[in-house]
Amino acid sequence: MGRSPCCEKAHTNKGAWTKEEDQHLIDYIRKHGEGCWRSLPKAAGLLRCGKSCRLRWINYLRPDLKRGNFTEEEVELIIKLHSLLGNKWSLIAGRLPGRTDNEIKNYWNTHIKRKLLSRGIDPQSHRPINASAVVTDPKNNAAVNPKTEYSSDNGAATSGTTTDEDLRQNGDCYHSNDNSGLEELNLELTLGSGSGSQRSFVP
DNA sequence: AAATTGTCCAACCGCCTAGGG
DNA sequence: TCCCTAGGCGGTTGGACAATT
User: Fold this and answer.
1) In a domain, A101, yes or no
2) Residue A107 in 3-state DSSP?
3) Do A90 and A156 fall within a single domain?
């Protein structure tokens, strides 16, 4: 059986986008808005897969994107959110206005991981490297190794439909040893206006 | 100056889920 | 209820550029 390809690959361009392609995409979305990515390339006169158009728009062309270096405040927020959500980059991005999941993912892999390691912190478990390697009490497994609560092994993290409720619940789990931080996190886990996800942007 | 190695990030791939018929 | 499709996500790749030898 197998899946049908998302587009006619023989008739689509791949690789880096040209300025002309970018302009076509921008013009089309300004006129018609986002949506119906599958038919967009044809309608916009682009020889691209719909997925590719969507990605290009979301990660690079959206006018509300910040670009530029991450601030120290953003970095610390990403670390906090990652400790709660794991590799749920789109959720993390939803709480950093002007940042994309791809951008955050790249920044995490190239900068933050190294930063945490240099602090002696395991980037996955967010525990000191020595402590994260050993689970001393199986009864308190979750508390000892929070990764078991929010890693890609748990339901919320793999469903792709993680909600703010999940975030709160995971926050409860993660801070089961230290409730003092939870309230602070709930208040501060969004930068800027606190409007949440930026994905509903319509030009 | 040229070759090699390392880093960064845009883009692609494949899988999953929601929603409609 | 099942099947199909489109949209969305996370992981990975590859090319451009920078730093080093």
Assistant:
1) yes
2) helix
3) yes
A114: nearest nucleotide, CA–C1' criterion = B7
DSSP secondary structure code for residue A128 in this structure = B
Distance CA A93, CA A96 (A): 5
A183: containing domain:
72-188
Tell me, what DSSP letter sits at residue A72?
H
Residue A170 CA to residue A5 CA, distance in Å, equals 36
CA of A51 to C1' of C8 (A): 10
> Does position A79 have pLDDT exceeding 50, yes or no?
yes
Q: Is A82 in the same domain as A167? A: yes
At residue A123, φ and ψ (nearest 5 deg) are -65, -20
Residue A178: Cβ within 10 Å count: 9
What beta strand segments (E) does A32-122 contain? none
- Strand C: which nucleotides have any atom within 7 A of a protein Cβ? 5-12, 15-16
Mean pLDDT of chain A: 68
